[in-house]
Write a structure and sequence with these properties.
Elements lengths: L1 H19 L3 H25 L3 H29 L6 H31 L3 E8 L3 E9 L1 H27 L5 H23 L7 H18 L3 H13 L3 E7 L4 E4 L1 H6 L3 H12 L5 E10 L2 E13 L5 E10 L1 H15 L9 H14 L5 E8 L3 H7 L1 H16 L6 E7 L2 E7 L5 H13 L10 E7 L7 H13 L9 E3 L5 H19 L3 E10 L5 E11 L5 E2 L5 H6 L3 H21 L5 E6 L3 H4 L2 H12 L6 E6 H5 L2 H14 L3 E4 L7 H7 L4 E5 L1 H4 L4 H17 L3 E5 L4 H9 L4 E3 L7 E2 H9 L10
Parallel strand pairs: 11-12, 14-16, 16-17, 17-18, 18-19, 19-20, 20-21
Antiparallel strand pairs: 1-2, 3-4, 3-7, 5-6, 6-7, 8-10, 8-11, 9-10, 13-14, 13-21, 13-22, 14-15
Helix pairs in contact: 1-2, 1-7, 2-3, 2-7, 3-4, 3-5, 5-6, 6-7, 13-14, 19-21, 21-23
């Protein structure tokens, strides 16, 4: 009795837990536990009652509960063996349940009538010493056997289902089905023993409780250790990282299949472990190379101690990751970033950078900067299509690369314009003319005669800007007459045609500056998160008295080359600061980004100029953002770094424009603390490898974010681009999607009164 009470309490507590779980299996277990509790309670009451009629009713209810308990068990087995969720058995189970419900109701009705007719069993008092009541003794009749047969028939169904499941189940799951089968069999055997013996107490009641608890254990909580081990083994074998585990005696106690591919011999891995332990470090991360099948693999190696909860070592773990392909891809991506996609030659910026390295590494040698230009190449595309034009350029580049020179560097600067750096000792004009003729021969297939012009600049100052060297070679080409009698020209400082054009610009410059012919235009900068205009980039246009507007491309380069760009820049900076002061008085919280030329670093004291400007007009330095090109930072990095650092300390925000256009982008980021990176969408549009470019762009943005650097993307032209960049968590947009560069008046009328736009027009 006491033991039964304990089990009743245990199952009651467990029922509360099961009630919180809404799964079909938990519901079934809840019902099974509740049925076991009811049966056990009814049996205990039957033992305690002393009135005959009450004993009859309680005992009948007890036998009814036993029948119902077997039905609940059957329902549990259906769910436990997953038969109820199988489309194959769903209909059969549904019909079976309906039939057996009817059987149960009939059996229950017959048992309820027994207290009146005594057709199934009758009770008599059992005494100790003839006067102390012990319990009720039951005498069963043939109709009671029908009740037993029904219960045992249902038990046989349960046995059958479990046996089939044991036979068909995966070896990892056999144990749980066998356990449930065994306990149920024991319970049934105990019940049969009780029925066939002369004992007065039914101990099988206790087994009902035990059986219910065991069912729960093997259903909800039991996870076979073999399954865990097998899953962990398959998981470790299916990853691309090799894993070795060692005990403190340096014995390898585990290795996955990937690890075994790297070290086929036991001695190899032991020697590797010894070399790692010799470093006397708790953690080692390095790259190693191993030979395998006539090829070299690069492995990223990680070694560390295994520590217990008390931080004491109990072993070692070695992880190996094959990064050979990754490194190859990185190498390919580096190649793609520095080489022209069409021709395979160096890009402009890569060519300039490599040229600078060569000149400084060999200052005593004489070099020529050579520019090749295909005259009227545009007509090829117009007449024969861009595919034919590309085919021509690829062939032309191939012939340049195959030139029989010891010291040569080739690059594609623009469309049909190529650059060559070559040692003077390897240049012969007669030979050069002959090679040009050979280059022109393969153009015959086009049915259009193309002429190749060559400009040569003799490098006299290795510290001269490489782009300036190339420009001088270009100027030499422009001096070649249109009669095609000459193919080669050397740069001459007296090239009057170029100088005349430059002089016209220079002569008109101060007059235009004094008469306010230079106008500041603004292109809105939009916050990515809500597409609100937060500021603008200041750009310049040259408006003549006749109303003709000159783009910056027609004069900026000339002003830079002639040391006048700083005058124009200072003019625009002051206009920008004046406008910021006006906005500040109106309570408008916009910024303006102004461009800082490479030459400005040398021609004017930048720190004094900018600090004086913001102090004079009383505006926060954060509102005047300074936009510096990447190429401006490359040269004289140490000096420029100090100027930038001083400006940042004063409160200015430094933007790096055209990030990625140069060869030393990462070097600059490493050495200078930039606040904002400005990336041009042309980065994507200029390449055929758009998906790869997107991945590189994504990596650049993630890198900037990790460094705490904000991102502005310019050249955003459509909503698809904006959405792509928004998903990358860019900070600001700039481009024709929102607005082209516009006058101050148009900017204020469009964006000062409203701070949110959804997109602009061109």
């Amino acid at each position: 009795m006491t033991l039964s009470s304990i089990f009743i309490v245990l199952m009651g507590v467990y029922c509360i837990y099961l009630k919180q779980n809404k799964s079909p299996l938990s519901k079934s277990l809840f019902n099974l536990h509740l049925g076991a509790i009811v049966s056990t309670v009814l049996y205990n009451i039957s033992l305690l009652t002393t009135k005959l009629l009450s004993a009859y009713f309680i005992t009948s209810l007890y036998y009814i509960s036993i029948h119902f308990l077997v039905i609940l068990l059957t329902d549990f087995i259906f769910i436990f063996t997953e038969m109820s969720s199988s489309p194959k058995y769903k209909k059969i189970i549904a019909v079976f349940k309906k039939i057996w419900l009817c059987v149960f109701l009939v059996d229950s009705f017959i048992l309820i009538l027994n207290p009146f007719f005594h057709h199934e069993f009758e009770l008599s008092r059992l005494y100790i010493n003839h006067n102390v009541f012990l319990c009720w003794n039951a005498k069963y009749f043939w109709m009671f056997n029908i009740h037993l047969c029904l219960c045992f028939a249902l038990s046989a169904v349960i046995f059958g289902i479990l046996l089939v499941k044991i036979i068909k189940a995966n070896r990892f799951y056999k144990s749980k089905y066998i356990s449930v089968f065994a306990v149920f069999l024991i319970t049934l055997v105990v019940n049969v023993v009780f029925l066939k013996s002369k004992t007065y107490f039914d101990f099988s009641v206790l087994f009902y409780s035990v059986f219910s608890i065991i069912c729960s254990c093997f259903t909800l909580f039991s996870i076979p250790r073999s399954i865990q081990n097998e899953m962990l083994k398959q998981l470790s074998d299916n990853i691309n990282i090799g894993i070795f585990c060692f005990n403190l005696e340096r014995k390898c106690i585990y290795s996955n299949s990937t690890a075994k591919k790297f070290f086929l011999a036991k001695d190899e891995i032991l020697n590797e472990l010894k070399s790692l332990l010799a470093l006397r470090k708790d953690f080692v991360k390095r790259n190693i190379e191993i030979k395998q099948d006539d090829k070299t693999l690069t492995l990223a190696e990680e070694f560390s101690y295994l520590l217990d909860s008390q931080k004491k070592a109990y072993g070692y773990i070695l992880k190996l990751n094959d990064i050979t392909e990754e490194l190859n891809k990185a190498s390919e991506e580096l190649f793609d970033s520095t080489h022209d996609a069409l021709t395979g030659l160096l890009t402009r910026d890569a060519f300039y950078s490599e040229t600078e390295k060569i000149l400084k590494s060999d200052p005593n040698s004489q070099y020529y900067m050579i520019c090749t230009n295909i005259k009227n190449f545009k007509l090829v595309n117009d007449l024969f299509g861009s595919e034919k034009g590309d085919e021509f350029l690829k062939e032309f580049a191939k012939k340049l690369k195959n030139a029989q020179y010891k010291t040569i560097l080739t690059g594609r600067i623009t469309g049909d314009r190529f650059a060559i750096l070559i040692n003077k000792t390897e240049v012969d004009e007669v030979d050069a003319l002959q090679k040009i003729k050979e280059l022109e021969k393969f153009t015959v297939s086009l049915n259009y005669k193309l002429h190749i012009f060559v400009g040569i600049y003799k490098i006299t100052d290795i510290n001269e800007n490489v782009s300036s060297m190339f420009d001088k070679a270009v100027l030499a080409i422009k001096n070649i007459s249109e009669n095609y009698s000459v193919n080669v020209a050397y740069y001459d400082n007296d090239m009057l045609s170029i100088l005349k054009k430059n002089r016209e610009v220079i002569n008109a410059f101060y007059d235009a500056l004094n008469n306010n012919h230079f106008k500041m235009y603004l292109q809105p900068q939009v916050r990515c998160s809500d597409e609100k205009v937060v500021g603008a980039e200041a750009l310049v246009r040259w408006e003549t008295e006749k109303g003709v507007i000159h783009s910056p491309a027609s004069f900026i380069k000339i002003l830079e080359d002639n040391g006048l760009i700083h005058e124009l820049d200072k003019f625009i900076w002051e206009q920008a600061v004046q406008l910021l002061q006006k906005w500040q008085l109106l309570g408008i919280d916009h910024h303006i980004s102004v461009n800082v030329s490479t030459r400005d670093f040398y021609l004017i004291p930048l720190y004094e100029t900018f600090t004086s400007l913001v102090t004079k007009y009383g505006i926060p330095p954060q509102k005047l953002k300074l936009e510096i090109t990447e190429t401006a930072l490359v040269h004289d990095l140490k000096r420029h770094k100090q100027i930038i650092t001083d400006l940042q300390k004063f409160g200015f925000t430094i933007e790096m424009d055209d990030f990625g256009s140069g060869y030393s982008s990462l070097t600059i980021l490493k050495n200078i603390s930039i606040n904002i990176l400005k990336i041009d969408m042309m980065f994507l549009s200029k390449t055929k490898h758009k998906e790869r470019s997107k991945k590189i762009l994504e990596s650049v943005i993630k890198m900037a974010q990790k460094l705490g650097i904000k991102i502005i993307v310019e050249g955003v032209e459509d909503k698809e681009q904006a959405e792509f960049l928004r998903n990358l968590n860019c900070d600001f947009f700039q481009g024709y999607l929102y607005s082209k560069p516009i006058t101050i008046e148009n900017f204020e009328s469009n964006y000062i009164s409203k701070t949110n736009i959804s997109g602009g027009t061109r």
